[in-house]
Amino acid sequence: MSPRPKIVKPVNRHLWLVEPLEGEATLLVKSMFGGKAVYLDGRFVLFLADKAEPWRGVLVPMEREHHAAVIADRPVLARHPVLPKWLYLSESVDSFEADAQWLVQRIRHRDPRIGIIPPAAKRKARRDFNP
Prior knowledge:
With about 130 residues, the chain is an alpha+beta fold.
């Protein structure tokens, strides 16, 4: 019997954005919906999307009340066309790298506008087995 082929998962093209946060004790990066969810201090702060537009770039989870202020700081950011509760930085913009690095620096400095507290995970009801 021949060995099973090893499944190699593709590397997310935006993982370089996590490098400045690697020294943070509370950093957590999880696979989610074909991208990478980045958490810091328990807050969901970035989603690194590596698919086709509009899922190719960086999504910024935040409360809607902060959108205008952050867009004023970085006008290239816009509401995501599918998830308008979050802002989006498309990889296709000329200033993608500089703007993405700006976001990471804001996160590193704990900008309170960026990030959300994820809702508590729902637990499935346990069923007792009664034959």
